[in-house]
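User: I'm writing a tutorial on reading structure tokens. Could you give me a worked example: one chain, its sequence, then its tokens, then a sentence or two explaining what the tokens reveal?
Assistant: Sure. Here is the example chain.
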Amino acid sequence: MSKSKDEIVRVTTHTLRELKEKGEKISMLTAYDYSLGKIVDTSGIEVILVGDSASNVMAGHETTLPITLDQMIYHATAVVKAAKRALVVVDIPFGSYQGSSSEALKSAIRIMKESGAHAVKMEGGKEITESIMRVLSAGVPVMGHLGLMPQSIYKFGTYTVRAKEEEEAEKLIEDAPELEKCGCFAIVLEKIPANLAKSVTSELKIPVIGIGAGPYTDGQVLVMHDVLGINKDFNPRFLRRYADLNTVISEAIKNYIHDIKSGSFPNQKESY
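And here are its predicted structure tokens:
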């Protein structure tokens, strides 16, 4: 059966591998709801991450730890409904896979079954490979995550750059191929030195997506609220803002209030 000219071709894990092989950079951005997810998808992004950063930008928590599996499924369901082209990856939240591999499997299956997502993301190295392999055994694609791992922020004690010291860098260098070996289709490297990320990226056949990891990775991911300037309280060195929606939205609401107070809204054309 031939494909129609206007048919949308879904991005898959295989697509990402092909992009790496071609040397084409992979674009990835977070989304947490239907309306903005639809805009992100139709803009041409390859991967949408329903990140546990929803805990911060959607729920106002200080860390990613409080968000629950049910809440992640809620956000993921909305984004999946919106995404017709992008690969939708969902973070398994803190406390939903660290306990045991069977718990990890149950959480991953719930995300895939209830939201319709295409893959899950899990933080950690060798210490979670058993859980990753258990999830993969059910046919669920897994994206790994190394470097700064926000779910472990209380262990780190700071959001500073990770793997600057030799011991931590060596662990990351050992963990990355282990994640590839056990079957991860891609890995996120967060807030590590650019040259270390370059080395890891060149050694792996699977795509490596960076956030604060320099220009040498196979792609980049950022939080949508930071990129669009909705959240102006977060200003790390690695962030590039592409809009100032905080100001745009604020001004629009002020104008709306003014028009109500002055009696100019609604006018006759806006009335029945």
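What the tokens reveal: The two ends are 50 Å apart (CA to CA). The CA atoms of residues 223 and 250 lie 20 Å apart.
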